[in-house]
Protein 1
Amino acid sequence: MNNNQPRPFFSVDWTMIAIFIALCLFGWLNIHASVYNPEKPGIFNLSTHYGKQFFFIITAFILGIAILLLDGQFLNAISPIVYGMTMFLLVLVPFIGKSVAGNQAWIAIGPFTLQPSEFAKFPTCLLLAQYLSMDQVKIQDLKTKVIAGIIIFIPIVLVMLQPDTGSALTFTSLIIVLFREGLSGYFLFLEGLLIVLFILTLLYGKLILTVILALLSALLAYVNRKNKKFAATLVVTSLISIGFVFSVDFAYNNILKAHQRDRINVILGKVNDPRGEEYNLNQSKIAIGSGGMWGKGYLQGTQTKYDFVPEQSTDFIFCTVGEEWGFAGCFVVIGLYLSLLLRIINIAERQRSSFRRIYGYGVASIIFFHFFINIGMTIGLVPVIGIPLPFMSYGGSSLWSFTILLFILIKLDSNRIGTT
Amino acid sequence: MNHFFERKFVVQGIFIVISLILLSRLFYIQVITNKYVLSAHNNVLRKLIIYPARGTILDRKEKALVQNEPVYDLMVIPNKVRPFDTLEFCNLIEMNREGFNKRFTKAKKYSPYKASLFEKQLSVQIYASFQEKLFEFPGFFVQNRTIRSYPDSIAAQFLGYVGEVNNRTITQSNGFYHQGDYIGISGVEKSYETLLRGHRGVQNIMVDALGRPKGNFANGKYDTIAVSGKRLISSLDKDLQKFGEKLMQNKSGSVVAIEPSSGEILAFVSSPTYDPNLMVGRKRGYNYTKFLSNPYKPMFIRPIQAEYPPGSVFKVINALVAQQLRSIDSNTVFNCSGGYYYGPNGSKKMGCTHKHGALNLRQAIAQSCNTYFGYTYNRMIDHAGMRPVNAYQHWWKEVSEFGIGSKLDIDLPNERKGRLPTGDLYTKRWGSDKWGSGFNISLSIGQGELGITPLQMANVMAIVANRGFFYKPHLIKAIGEKHVVKEEYTKKNNVSIDPRYFNIVIEGMDDVVNSPGGTAIYSKIPGIDMCGKTGTVENSQGKDHSVFFAFAPRINPKIAIVVVVENAGFGATWSAPIASLMVEKYLKNTISRPQSYIDRLLLANLLPPIRTKASTSEPKKSENMKSSSLIPPKSTVNIQKKQNETIKKADTQPVKPNE
């Protein structure tokens, strides 16, 4: 109907943009606070994190505007190409990558380093959306499941190789997209079940768990012995579960690195080692917990400013929020994220095109995963997995990738009236 | 077309539930529990104790007796310690591995999070080399504070010493004292602890994760400043004290001098003494043990803790009390035929030094006639118009007014009250209350069950000098910059002796020093009218104690003094000359007597041999002693025993004459 798009900003969703700007700026304030050094007060000093982040934010805005100027159809068309290029970059990373904090996930371009794993998120969402929105593609079909699975698992495997477990796990959140598109709730249940099994295996060992699983299945099968369909599901579930238990055990002992095992052990309460791995988590909790109801005030946080919290401007930026802004600040930040997520879902649902809806769900899934895991790890709910807090954590790659992710959605949404 | 639309709600539900979980967890750790606030304080806050300078102690001319010197204490916070090169550490602070482990365990036991003292008082040299390497040893830091220093090394027992506070005191102090704090343990340091210690300050500083200071917490809102301890001005005259300690070297005994018009103690010599500088610093414990095991007991504060029968100086009191009780007057004459005979048919005798013939009170004092005071005591007890046991009570009351048998409440800890036996003691010993003066006749000449400290003797002299009153003897005359004087020291204490009765006694005491027949004529001071009384105290353990007390000048007295030299023999030989030099030094600040007069006293070693295996040898020289050696333990410790023996002797056979 209106393919000319004379005014690209006219129909954009200002709510999302407002939340985006709010998170970016609030994040920047907190980065400033977390590394604040009275001896180097310059806000735009490019040798400091907050100086750099300011530059990143400006460029992110420019990037966002550029995306809004793109053609919506074009985005759809190029998604396989972008996906392919990104995957190629990911393959390259282990060879040309630069190691930062044990993860060889960075590629140096001039004075800046880029993290290709961050940039793999939006192409994956795009390609998944494109594939699932094709005619005749139904998630109920095994073939569809396999292809969708492959689209998701290629980046997982490649990112794992870097190795960057945290970023790799991000892609698993896309199961939410599949669920929305009709994937049986059973799979969501299965994923939940597997997470529980994962924890229980590490806590109690594979043998005990296998026995318990077998007994439980037998009991359930006996109770529901007349329901054939249920029995079949049960058998499959049990087999998957037991297989999973063994593979978790194997992975834990043979694949995970010592520090990853430590992190998991700390979360599970299996080790008590306040000076070792638990130190980070403990300091993070202390910083947030000491903020109280109203926080210590801007630039008044002692725990983050004096380096008690590790990575206080990147993965642990939420500590500064918790310490200086208190529960009130945390409430606002969580409120902003939740509003953003709910808004994205609403926007996705108002699209006529399933491509856009699916893409929207992809954006929501990824932001949600980062939001939950990042904040969860700072307060000890989930293991310490090094992934950034969207829009707030220090770092150009992460900010730009989330900006691209979100602004593509905004762009697609602004065209919603035009295209089917 | 839009199948599974309702799943939107499931997804949104998941988002909301997860957000709520995050929020409730945050609410718990931020609002409900304060555990993390405390941990955050632990992380970042360091309380830096600012130790106040302990008050200095000055002499009466405001010259320093005690001052402060900086030292460096090594502190540790056990849970901040990271692995380090212990060998290098131990070498730097000159400590062995064992000592290191012991101290570290102790610190950990006290608290892993709080700073505790690791090694006290590093020397400036060790501190300097250690400070350079301090960064290699996280968890350790150096805190500087001051220790006591004694420029003249005098008045050890008077000043006392400070030491680390013990656990019991820490508990009782309601948080005032902390482990490693210093507290006065004896002497003025102890009795004026609350004034001297001051108030310490606390500085709350913040540190970063590596323990580097990052400035004041809350702009110093919770900081307190250290308030220095009060300055004490003692009554001591530094020069006089020094001179007294010198004269008393190699002797065991005391010198106490009081200004009668104020009760201020001018000299407080306890000999043998020690250098108070040895009781500070890292060697304190070692020296302390050494002093304790020293047979001459340098830690014994003789002026207030040694109790002796006063001997003939007690005749002064009896002369005054007898007049007050109307038993004699200034003209009363008794005949001395070489002793006082008493008991059934005069079968018992208390001997006298001479056959004095007929003599009056003044002559009796001047010549220290035992017979005269035997008769006098007999009149007071047996011829008072009442039963002797009641008469004794009157006598007891008059004597006790002189401060005998009770504490004078001097401003030093551990004063002893001495002993003035009550009538009950004799009633018990006799078996009924029908005893008379013959039963305790040795009290007439200051022997027997009496126990009097040198301080009490000096105070008696002050009373005589004042003709009937005294101010509480004290060592600290003024406190702080404003020279505050304790009220109790401005209060006049009267004895009930009529002032006119003092005249004749003072005449006699004048004769003791200044008339040809006086017992202390050798100690006459040219140009100063000193009145005194000698005493030679029987000592069943060894040689007699030499005692002399005096005041001067006779008109408007400025100093009352007592000198006790244990195991030295006649009062006139040793104590009186020492007293006369002290008086002259104080009043004129020069000595008119020839050097040989002083040298005789300085060079004399009157310390008794130690009663050990090596008792035949010369007294052991102790490297840390100022006086080369100290008194044998028995002569002071067993005073009580000796007194009992003395009274038996006095009752059953003629008493050994006293001059």
Protein 2
Amino acid sequence: MSWTRLVLMMGLLIGMVEGSDASPASALPTLQTPASSEGEDVPVVGRPVDLPFSEASGWFEVQAHAEPTTVQAERPLTLTLTVRAVRPPRRPPQRLDLRQLPDFAELFYIEEADEEAAQLNAHTWKFTYRLRPRRTEVSEIPSVPFVYFNPYLLTASKGFQVLYTDPIPLHVLPPETVQVPVQGPESAFVLTTGPSVLERRVPWRPPGLGVIGVVLLVPPLGCIVWYFLWQRLYPDATRLARQRRSHAARRALQALRTAEQLDVKAGAAQTAALVADYFQQRLDWAIAEPTPREVALLFAQHHFSLALTEQAVCFFQACDCARFLPSDDATRPSLMELQNAAMRLILTMEEETCSTLPS
Amino acid sequence: MFYAPLLTALLLHAESGATLTDHELLERAEAEFQEGVHLRLSRDQARPHFRNAAGYFDALRQRGVCNPVLYRNLGNAYLLAEDLPHAILSYHRGLHLAPNDRDLHESLAEARQRVVYPASGGLGRPRSDDPPPWLPYLHSDGLMFAAGACYLVGCLSLTRWWMVRCGRLLVAGLLALLLVGILLGWLIIRIEAQNERAAHPLVVIARDGVLLRRGNSMAFPPRYDTPLYRGVEGRLLFERDGWVQMELSSGEIGWVPQETVLVDRP
């Protein structure tokens, strides 16, 4: 027996009980013929408060149908509610809002109605709903309560009838998951393998003070040792180095080597001037053209050796001879001899001054 | 179901710490990573594998394994597991060991691109402190060696110049000593940076919606209305009563709860 017929019989039985205190003729439910079929108001009293009212007035049957009955969770299915008037209706049914039914709201997402009820003919209406099961545990579409007013029953207080549709079994499948790829640069998907992965590298730390001290001291000490060894192993080189240390001597020697080939008089004057210039720089001597006597006096003041003093005096005497003796005099020295004597004098003096004078 | 990967990771951690050798840990980490790569088209399936790989790599790190390759793998695993703060931290640790590693630089840049920064203003946005690519990076050991070599060359050149008085040797010796000064200055700057890093380690925001506060309590008002999101970097200044005072890379200073940040401690 369907719910529809069961409720109908219950309504009839209630009508019989309500009429028991009236006349015997009214003990049976009396089916009225509607006096005015259009525009008759539906009473407000007696409406079920916990169920949505369809606004329908008449005598109806209702059926529910779902398609499909096997559906993925959160995917839509169509529920069709067909209402048929078994007697001429006074007011047509309106669309029920299933969201007002807790069973539906809990189990389904109910989409907004976007279409009007389809009236198949004067006595049949069809309401379509789009439902989406919320989860896989949903196993049926619950009964839909269809509340309407039945004016054909004499018991007006029980005129509101509720028809329940049969529950519809439903098989809800797990939802289809959308595959989202892992986001990342392509280099992040490349795994570096090999023994280097297990290395235990210690972060760099600065060396200690001891190491720094050794690093700072060892090269200079090594260089000092190297220098003294070099001095011992190459004494001539040492002497040359000392000679080169005198910038004035180097310049004088260079000038003597590159002197122009003049005649003897001019060459002698130039050579004497170069040596005098060297003396000026080396000994802070202010005399531009010294005589041999002045040279001897100067060397004595600086405590030069007797040999060096004699060598210097002889050089300047030779220069004087070259400058002032007649050209045919056999004792007059040549320019080459003067230049060689000047170089020897400078080198000898440098060698002696390295040990006696500050360089 | 949601906690299954987490539980698996915990179990793996417990197992790895107890019995597995370093090689076994590495093999498992690589296997999990490769499985994640195999399933990369499905994020939900791949992520637990990347997370497991990161767990194994991190277990190696906790055992004392320390090298740029490990940190790159670890950072990549975290990045693909969508754990942005740990990824950034790992890349920074790797760059500390190998500042010239181009892959680490690129991976860190990629991770930073995923960090949510405020649309307006530069709150938390890191400044570009990377050296220009054309500038070669010399390791500190290399700097030390070069400075020592230049110092030796300078001493030898000056000594030889003292012997033979050749001007070129004097110039060479002075240039060598000048180079020593430059290298030592460079090295001192690097040591200072290392000391600064040790005194104020890196801090990475580990949760979304963290507010910088004016003091070390929730009673203090936020310093800025803009919240910080996962991956924002800064430097640790102070710690007090479960709170951390940090200076963001963009210069802002404030307090955040300790449980909302990752601190780069050895």
